[in-house]
Automatic annotation (TrEMBL):
Belongs to the SURF1 family. The chain crosses the membrane at residues 51-72, 261-279. Its main location: membrane. Probably involved in the biogenesis of the COX complex. This is SURF1-like protein. Keywords: Membrane, Mitochondrion, Mitochondrion inner membrane, Transmembrane, Transmembrane helix. It comes from Aedes albopictus. InterPro entries: Surf1/Shy1, Surf1/Surf4.
Amino acid sequence: MFRFIQRETLSRLRTSRPVNRIQPCRQAHQKRPRVPPPVRLRSDGNQPITAFGWFLLAIPATTFGLGCWQVYRKQWKEDLIRTLESRMRMEPVPIPDDLSELDKMEYQKVIVRGEFLHDQELHLGPRAFIQKGDSNTTGGLFSQKEASIGYLVITPFKLEGREDKILINRGWVPKRLLDPASRPDGQIKGTVELQGVVRLPENRPQFTPNQKGAIYMYRDVPKMSEQCGTEPYFLDATVESTVPNGPVGGQTRVTLRNEHLSYIFTWFSLSGFTSWLWFRQVVRGKSF
């Protein structure tokens, strides 16, 4: 009986298939192709963009709007510069009988004839000395220290042959000559003829205190004219009106800063960067 069982066992071992123990190991070491995961948007319905995420979109939208606004400002500034330059090159004309026409003649030269009323002199400043249409504090008639601090002399002017009075910016004086008594030779008397550049009122700059006294901090033509009893019109006397020991004329700034191109680049760059950042962080949900 024992021999029969032994023969059956040996016959079964001979007919059975050998087990391949190496194949699973080989399959375990085989490299599987890496499939990149599909892009999953946060707005696929499962994870919608939150209200705060939409609020953050206001940053690139606002900077883009500021860039567009600077494009408009650049065009406006270039048109203003061209208009200013063309008017400054025009030949001077007699002051119109209707003074209201001066509102449309800013930066244009007019010829006036009349008499200064020095007893009502006003001052505007402090201001830097202007040469050739721009600030210049080196050399010239005054020292560098004096040219950095001074004031504009604003004097009422009665037009000849009429009752109208206007305001004329005679020019710049250093602080030591602010008192009219310190420059008696410069207080010209009698009828004079001069050329002046039409200027419109200036808006009150931000943080500028309210006007007190006879020294103004900006060109507040309505208040100046009310104080002196003149018409609300203002001229900058040209440099040819300068007299010895008197205010230096030609204090009209004819150069304007035009840096809007750099502002355009800045705002549009910020808009592009924040747009990419918003898409990466909010839409795709990636972090750095």
